[in-house]
Amino acid sequence: MTRLSGPTGPDPLPDDFDAWLDDALSALPLMSPREGFGDRIMARVALPDPFGARALRALPARWLRPRSLPAAAMLLVMIGSMAASALWTVGHQQTLLTIGDWLGTQASSAAWFGIFGAASTLLEQPWFGGLREFAASPVRLATTSALVMAVYAAGVITLRRLLSPPARQVAHAGL
Fold first, then answer.
1. From CA 100, how far away is CA 89, in angstroms rounded?
2. Which domain holds residue 71?
3. For 103-133, what is each residue's pLDDT tens digit?
4. Which of 19, 59, 104, 160 is deepest in the core (most CB within 10 A)?
């Protein structure tokens, strides 16, 4: 086997390497398989029967069975109903907008009715008079608000301390 030497010279350029490689590759003998090689190899390969092809071949017979006819009829009715609904929607957009506006108005009035009912029920409670008198004094209201905020801040600080990792090493019961 002969060893090929690369391009010579003090500083060979990349084009010199390309030319040398082209010459070296063209000097190699051409190698190709004999005629019919691919056919001989493929004759030895066992291809399984694809499931999809068998399923598609059996599809017409399966749909024409008496048990499959009700399912096909239901599918046809469902697709037909969907198509009819889409066509009706396209032709009656103004009717749908009117129905939507009416439903929005009814929902809004029902929500306001519920809010007014809850507020009137709250106002008629026997303890509401005492709450109103308590809120009438700004000093009591400010004091209570400050106390509630202090308790809330203490809870947040306590929760933060509970969730933070310990600062020093803790003994772990023999682990």
1. 13
2. 57-91
3. 999 999 999 999 999 999 999 999 998 888 9
4. 19
Q: Is residue 64 part of a domain?
A: yes
The answer to the question of residue 168 being in a domain is no
- Residues 22, 4 contacting (CB under 8 angstroms): no
Q: Which residues contact 144 (CB under 8 A, 6 or more apart)?
A: 134
Q: Per the structure, how many domains does the chain have? A: 3
Q: For the beta carbon of residue 16, count every other beta carbon within 10 angstroms.
A: 14
Cβ neighbours of residue 4 under 8 Å, at least 6 residues apart? 24
Tokens encoding 167: 């600062």
Element (H, E) at 116: helix 93-123
* Per-residue pLDDT tens digits for 35-59: 999 999 999 988 777 777 777 777 7
**Look-up of token digits 């990349």:** 14
**CB-facing half-sphere around the CA of 50: CA atoms within 13 A:** 4
